[in-house]
Design brief:
This protein has 172 residues and is α/β, with parallel strands linked by helices. The protein has 6 helices and 6 strands. The protein has helices at 11-25, 54-65, 82-94, 98-102, 118-130, 150-166; strands at 2-6, 30-34, 68-72, 106-112, 134-135, 140-142.
């Protein structure tokens, strides 16, 4: 299963919905999660002993069941949106097997940003590679002057689909 994550409820949610639609067209099982709808408290080491709630448990289950990830994020001040950073922080601190959630999973990065979006994609590439993900070299970038190219989306989904078909299921 492909897990599509969006860290914005606006244009990146629309991009994630387009990704989800393409996954359906290529018969790739996929689930879309809008991180902005999750009630995750702001992570801090002072909250390590708190229960972050059912939304984190649900996200962890979806991550554990995913064979690959597709992440749609805007660029916030040249960096990663707080919703995604917060989710990764909670997953790294509270999941039963944090490494299994990320290690060896193929990931596609995409953005709809007012600028180029290259800074957020570069920052995520470094972070996700550090977590053990296999980040695809090709990215999907859209902005107000550069709309989504359906052929690029189709090609990227086909590439990810081929990897998911040969990917080893994540350990449980």
């Amino acid at each position: 299963m492909l897990l599509i994550l969006t860290a914005s409820h606006q244009r990146n949610l629309a991009l994630a919905e387009a990704v989800h639609g393409e996954a359906r067209r290529q018969v790739i099982p996929a689930t879309l999660v809008d991180l902005t709808t999750l009630a995750l408290p702001l992570y801090s080491s002072r909250r390590d002993d708190e229960d972050p709630g059912d939304d984190l448990r649900s996200l962890e289950e979806r991550m554990a069941g995913a064979r690959g990830l597709w992440i749609c994020v805007p660029e916030y001040n040249g960096g990663v949106p707080p919703t995604l950073t917060n989710a990764i922080a909670w997953l790294s601190r509270r999941s039963t097997d944090f490494r299994a959630l990320f290690n060896g999973k193929p990931v596609v990065l995409s953005t709809h940003s007012g600028g180029s979006g290259q800074k957020v994609l570069s920052a995520l590439r470094v972070q996700l590679a550090h977590l053990g993900c296999l980040v695809l070299g090709r990215e999907l970038l859209t902005n107000p002057q550069r709309p989504l190219n359906p052929a690029s989306l189709k090609a990227l989904m086909a590439q990810l689909g081929a990897l998911l078909g040969s990917a080893v299921a994540p350990p449980r």
